[in-house]
Every structure is written in C-alpha cells, then in structure tokens.
Design a protein that fits this description.
CATH class: Alpha Beta
Strand content: 15-25%
Number of strands: 7
Strand order of the largest sheet: 3-2-1-4-5-6-7
CATH topology: Rossmann fold
Largest sheet: 7 strands, parallel
Number of helices: 9
C-alpha cells in the first residue's frame, strides 16, 4: 500500500511527538510541525529517519493563517496530498479568572482554537478534492469537566470537542472522518509544571493510580486513523485512566 502522509501540529514534544513516532512506526510519512522548538522537531525527524521511516519538520505558528497556508502548501507540493491531520498543538496559561490577563486568554484561544481552525480549513480543502481523509483533534478531559484555574484552557478544549462534532457533519459526505481524543493527566512537559503535592492529590483521584503515557494517547489516535475505525466520526474518546 502507498504510504499515507500525516501532518501533526505541535509534533515536536509531548503527545504530538508520540503521535509522530506512532504513525512513523506504522509506515506513514510524517510531517512534524513546530513553532519555536526547532531542535526538538529535528530530533523527532532524526529518530524516525534513522529507523528507516520518512519525516521532515516544518515551522509554522498555527495561530497565523498565512503561516499555516504556507505550511500546507509546502506539504502538498512535496507529496501532492495530506491523508491525515492531527491537531495536537496547544498551550496553557492558567490562573483564576479574576486575575487572568487578557493577553493570556487571547494567547490560549488563538493557539488552541484559531490554530485548529486554520489547520483544519487549509487541509480539508485538499481532502475534499480527494474525497477522503482523517482529521483527529487533541482536546482534554478539562474540556469536558472544566478545571479550576484553567478557564481559557478548558474553554478552548471544550470548543475543540464542539468543533469536531460540527465539522464531522460537514465533511462526512466527502468521505472525511473527524474525531477527537480527550486525554486526562498525561506525563508531558505541561504536567511537569504542576507542583509535587498537587500531582500526589491528582494521582489519588485516578482509579488506575498513575499518570498516562503519551504513547497511550498516540495509540488511540492511530486507531482512529486506521482501517478499523472507518465508521467512527464526530466522536470524542476519553483517555484518562478512569478519572471522571
């Protein structure tokens, strides 16, 4: 079978990195998007290429419509198509709402929601022409339950879930699947910023009594892009270790 072309936003670290490695292991060509962490993105590509896979890194601030369109155009020029888009890029700038700076709210919404809009809109145009494709969006359990001190993050992640449901209905007639994965507490750089005492309290709430691994989220993402998930669209799969 011809190798698929997979574009992963925020693919240089955390869950995005694990997603890139998982698709490469499955034999797909991987495009690793990054904004500022060029060295990390190049390391991901080197790991894939040294193992016999195919990957290259492309810089783009996904909150910029122009940069995203240029990124997508460069991938199309190279491979002529994009088969799978994984919207993994995201940021968090927490704080209680009454103390939250407007700039922090704008940064989170711009990256997490406008970035989703930019990448999906640019890629789906090409997928419609091919009458096939898969888009998988990375949300969060906090987008379902809410998280105190993280109103912009929770709002943006909840928006991703609603966006997924709406877009899935729009593009289903063209054979395009759109789904969402909502991780709970996963061992990433973002979670490493949580104080140790807060981490301990969090572990007590998780029925499996441990944090998730990025690879476990990536496994769900690759499943949703596989031939075993061709009748699933508009859904959100929670990967939380049982955390309600």
């Amino acid at each position: 079978m011809e190798k698929r072309v997979v574009l992963v936003t925020g693919g240089s670290r955390g869950i995005g990195r694990a997603v890139c490695l998982a698709f490469a292991e499955a034999g797909d060509r991987v495009v690793v998007n990054y904004n500022s962490s060029r060295e990390q993105a190049e390391c991901v590509c080197a790991e894939i290429n040294s193992a016999g896979g195919e990957a290259f890194a492309v810089q783009a601030d996904i909150s910029s419509t122009v940069e995203v369109e240029e990124m997508v155009a460069s991938v199309i020029e190279r491979y002529e198509r994009i088969d799978v888009l994984v919207n993994s890029a995201g940021i968090s700038k927490g704080g209680f709402l009454m103390l939250l700076e407007e700039a922090s709210w704008d940064d989170v919404i711009s990256t997490n929601l406008k970035g989703l809009y930019n990448a999906s809109k640019s890629v789906v145009r090409h997928m419609i022409g091919e009458r096939r494709g898969v888009i998988i969006n990375i949300s969060s359990l906090s987008g379902i339950t809410g998280l105190a001190g993280e109103t912009p993050y929770s709002a943006s992640k909840g928006g991703i879930i609603a966006f997924t449901k709406a877009l899935s209905k729009e593009v289903a007639p063209f054979g395009i699947l759109v789904n969402c994965v909502a991780p709970g507490a996963v061992e990433t750089e973002m979670l490493n910023e949580v104080p140790p005492e807060a981490r301990e309290k969090l572990l007590e709430l998780i029925p499996l009594k441990r944090l998730g691994r990025p690879e476990e989220v990536a496994g769900v993402v690759t499943f949703l892009a596989s031939g075993s998930a061709t009748y699933i669209t508009g859904e959100t799969i929670v990967v939380s270790g049982g955390l309600p």
